[in-house]
Specification:
- The structure is a single chain.
- This protein has about 350 residues and is of the alpha+beta class.
- It has two domains: about 5-205, H-NOX domain (Alpha-Beta Complex); about 235-335, Homeodomain-like (Arc Repressor Mutant, subunit A, Orthogonal Bundle), CATH 1.10.10.
- About 50% of the residues lie in helices and about 10% in strands.
- The strands form two sheets. It has a five-stranded mixed beta sheet with strand order 3-4-7-5-6. A two-stranded antiparallel ribbon has the order 1-2.
Length: about 350
């Protein structure tokens, strides 16, 4: 990874507030020692270097004498802590959609290389969190804050006593299992194959009380632009732009995208792999974002949307849309419609 990772400056505000209010610790000296200008916390959407934020986390743990300070701070998350991502999270149709949104836009919070994926079956849905670059391994305190903030956002979106079904941690027992269990109200497994939060699928697929298609749409646009501005030279940004333009032509395949970027397929594959993604993932996420936008807009017929997204027919589009959202396009557009209708 050529560019040093950064963290959203809004996180500094949360850290400072919890240090002051929960621990009685003045954050100003810690910010100064970490090399962070405290005024950055007031500039929503600005960025702080990963090196500086890691120093702040270490100083916070030392000042509070609490190795679980990350869990405490993450649990105090607010809707605006993560810029537009928190607002979007709360206004999705379901928590499953909220977590998929997090997988797509987690880099708003921190640009450290991660692989986030939501793996669902009938009983459970598992949010897997994998650190993909050995140069940027898992750091315990910010990791604690990250998983605590995910559950915290779920509780803000649903109810205060919402809990995951299980916590899986890939590292060995750190003798803080009781702290995890106290916060998450769920069993904790150390030494798991992957770090993961496990949820009951039925809870993730229930409609959220704060769902708002208009607010979600507005936040989604803000997030798309924000991510693109983080590193405009990223090849994945260029691929997304090309896909949006080429999907209606029916020629949005990897060969054509490679030609438009003046590189071979193997070079494109390598460049995308360096950014922890691939062509298939970008195609799917771009189609998903456009599909939800088009379906929400009643002026577009479903057959027209399928064509615009490059699907061979409406049935294939409907199957993909159901995989993305858990509903058919017709049921998503009209909640009173029969969601069991696959063809629509």
């Amino acid at each position: 990874m050529d560019v040093e990772p950064t963290t959203l400056s809004d996180v500094i505000r949360l850290i400072s507030e919890v240090l002051r209010q929960h621990y009685g610790v003045d954050p100003e000296p810690l910010l100064e020692q970490a090399g962070i200008d405290s005024r950055m916390a007031e500039v929503s959407g600005s960025r702080v270097s990963r090196e500086a934020i890691l120093r702040l986390w270490e100083l916070a743990a030392a000042a509070t004498n609490d190795p679980s300070v990350g869990l405490v701070i993450g649990s105090k998350v607010r809707a605006t802590t993560f810029y537009a991502l928190g607002v979007a999270f709360l206004t999705c149709e379901t928590l499953a959609e909220s977590l998929e949104l997090l997988c797509r836009y987690y880099r708003v919070i921190a640009t450290v290389p991660l692989q986030l994926s939501l793996v669902a079956d009938t009983e459970n849905s598992t949010l897997e969190i994998e650190y993909t670059d050995p140069a940027y391994p898992l750091d315990p305190i910010p990791f604690d804050s990250f998983i605590a903030s995910i559950v915290g956002l779920c509780r803000l979106a649903t109810k205060p006593d919402f809990n995951p079904a299980e916590i899986r941690l890939a590292f060995s027992d750190n003798h803080r299992g009781g702290d995890y269990e106290a916060l998450f109200k769920a069993p904790v497994i150390f030494g798991a194959q992957k770090n993961a939060l496990v949820f009951a699928s039925a809870e993730l697929n229930a409609a959220l009380p704060g769902r708002s298609s208009d607010l979600l749409h507005a936040s989604d646009r803000i997030l798309e632009n924000y991510i693109a501005a983080l590193n405009p030279e990223e090849i994945s940004t260029e691929v997304r732009k090309l896909l949006m333009a080429m999907l209606p032509t029916g020629n949005a395949n990897q060969e054509q995208v490679s030609k438009r970027l003046h590189m071979s397929r193997s070079t494109l594959h390598r460049r995308l792999r360096e950014e922890n993604t691939n062509y298939k993932e970008l195609l799917d996420s771009t189609r998903r974002a456009l599909a939800i936008e088009y379906v929400r807009d009643n002026q577009y017929a479903l057959g027209y949307i399928a064509f615009q997204l490059g699907f061979s027919d409406q049935s294939n589009f409907s199957r993909a849309f159901r995989r993305w959202t858990g509903k058919s396009p017709k049921a998503y557009r009209d909640p009173g419609a029969d969601s069991s209708t696959v063809a629509n």
